[in-house]
Amino acid sequence: MATVIIPTPLRKFTNNTAKLDVKAENIQQTVNELTLNFPDLKKHLLDEQGQIRSFVNIFVGNDDIRDLQQERTEVRTDTVISIIPAIAGGYA
Amino acid sequence: MIILDTIARAELLKDAIAAFPDECCGFLFGREDANGFRAVSDILVVNNAKEGDKRRRFAIAPLDYLKAEQYAEDNQLQLLGVYHSHPNHPAIPSEHDRVAAQPWFSYVIVSVLEGKPDALRSWRLNNEDQFEEENVGVVASNINHEFNHQS
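^ inputs. structure came back:
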């Protein structure tokens, strides 16, 4: 099974679990499994249209899925998937 | 409440001064106890990766975020939040700060006025996704950060 690393600020929605195993063949299935098992994660990962939020980066290893095949990016049993919140801000 | 170790606080202020008039940014590490009190023992200075006007915006690259999570794991610490500076503006989060903010994280903001550090304040999102201020304290380095510690 592939491993998903949950970022610290979202662990309150995964019972404080940092690493989760998923039975998925691609990123879309990974996200589906996560939001099914942890419904409170949904609003932080997906927008109203069910698309991955622009503020959320998903990496397979060190590669952004935007540079791969997006949600269709393949996942293998040894794949490490990182959910990375976009950290940004500023006074104006 | 969030307590900053004096060395961590000094490093944070040094980064804010060095970056002026741009915004600086970085991560806060430490531990949260069972009562929700947070003690910051380490900071990690990060490059402001914002493309465009760094005087009023900051961004942290995804790979730097991954490194921060790894640093926390390697050092058995918690990634408690993020700091950044507001050059020539108060240490109050903007709407842009709020929209981009993550749940649970502490957001420490330091105001830098004409190159000199001013107020340092910390904020966290509440359940309505609005910022609430949290009290900030400072303790000397190398002190046991258990809040019920008595020497």
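The interface with chain B takes residues 5, 7-12, 18, 44, 55, 57, 59, 62, 64, 82, 84-92 of chain A (CB under 8 Å). The mean pLDDT of chain A is 96.
thumbs up if we can close this ticket
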